[in-house]
Amino acid sequence: MGQEQQDGEEYLFKIVLIGDSAVGKSNLLSRFARNEFDSNSKATIGVEFQTQAVEIDGKEVKAQIWDTAGQERFRAVTSAYYRGAVGALVVYDITRRSSFDSVKRWLDELSKINPQWYNHAVHCDTAVARMLVGNKCDLENIRDVSTEEGKSLAEEEGLFFMETSALDATNVQTAFEIVIREIHNNISRKVL
Ligand code: GDP
Ligand code: MG
After folding, report:
1. CA-CA distance, 48 to 168, in Å (whole number)?
2. Which residue(s) pair with 67 in the sheet?
3. Does ipTM surpass 0.95 in this model?
4. What's the superkingdom here (predicted)?
5. Which ligand is in closest contact with the Cα of 41?
6. Taking the model in full, what pTM does it have?
7. Burial class (CB in 10 A: 0-12, 13-18, 19+), 21
């Protein structure tokens, strides 16, 4: 959770997945962390996270990626879920416009985070690294939100943008890695 480990060479970053129910958050995480896809995935109640190590510029950084695991169905994502997050993937489903319309509401919730990153010596307040993710891009034939719309919303809000498919693995690795790299850069800039 944004804590420094050992001698400052290794970090653990908290990243949250947010977005409407059924946009594919859990599958993006299982694709990224275990290279798995589950076509029958059911929303379970509670908060879960996965820790994933990524090498950036020869350094191992660990991302602790949190999945809402169903809380969002009740629009009741707790503040504990967001606390300490330094990165976020805000996910919508390119085949479901209502999930795209919800993005602003998720960004509002996220902006209530006080973005802080602590270690013993340094207190940094960097911006939360945010990526807008249009998932299910394998379903081009029933697309309901154009790539351009996604791009321009991302530009307006100052977010990275990527269309992904958890099903066929398109851009999943890249989306997480861009966020992790940005966090790493933010923190390195502050620390050095
Ligand atoms: P969550 O509620 O946001 O965690 O969404 P899930 O990961 O549980 O996925 C919801 C449904 O969408 C499931 O039936 C998944 O199989 C399906 N799904 C998730 N990602 C994709 C994708 O990239 N492409 C397609 N075609 N289906 C997906
Ligand atoms: Mg889920």
Report:
1. 23
2. 48
3. yes
4. Eukaryota
5. 1
6. 0.88
7. middle
